[in-house]
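Q: I have 260 residues here and want to know how they pack in 3D. Can you give me a structure?
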Amino acid sequence: MWHLVCGDAAVEGVSFVLGAEGARSALRVLRDDLAVGPLHDTDLPPCRVRAEFWRTVWPAGMPPLPKLDESLSEDAQWLAGLPRQERSVTVWHGDSASEQLLLARVAEVLLDSDTALWEVACGTGDSSVGRRRAVSMHEPQALVALYRSRRVTAERQRILAGQWRQAVQENAWVRRWQDAAFHGEDFTRIDAQLLAAIQPHWHPLAQAMADVMKGCDGFFATDMLLFWRARVLAGESLIEAQGQAGEGYAGWCVRRVNKT
């Protein structure tokens, strides 16, 4: 059986549950943050549009994302081949929109195949900041207690597959997972949250980013995403910034521009 997780942060805990040999032979990490960016060619190698999105997000001057095009294509090709393998598939997921999108993506890949889809649910079902739990937010021992695989029913798999197809067709910039469904939007809301967190006086950008992360329901806004949006806001003269993108956000200071 394959065990799939979304992101490196979940590897340690799930590896503890599976054991070193089980993790080595069965654990597969999908690193793409499916909650943001265009999805139209996510399952269509070489995934050029999605790769270009991540290159845009990544700060100029920093070392480039390693083998981005290759990794996105490899994941798409590997997932497409799952129905032809003999192993069943287990997806570990919590209340992260990316984890839920991975589950829906795999459900669509395996739809109408003989490959069984299983899930290990590690969330609360509530993606609000105060209640959500991603797989990586659990201590390894807690994941042992949560390791109760359940077979995804045919009806649930059809619903999940339909949600994936809808998300791909909608092709929104941001997808929030709320009330067991995905809700697409542009960057207006997250930009407004970031702008509201930036004060009229100079202060560290990291402080504003942390405030946004603490209040961002429906998906986990990453530091690289917020750093990119801060650079966009600076380019639109909505904020002033001091720092070099290639040095990362830790050295950046920002202040809101007062419009008169």
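Q: Anything worth noting?
A: The CA atoms of residues 177 and 218 lie 5 Å apart. The chain has two domains: 2-178, 188-256.
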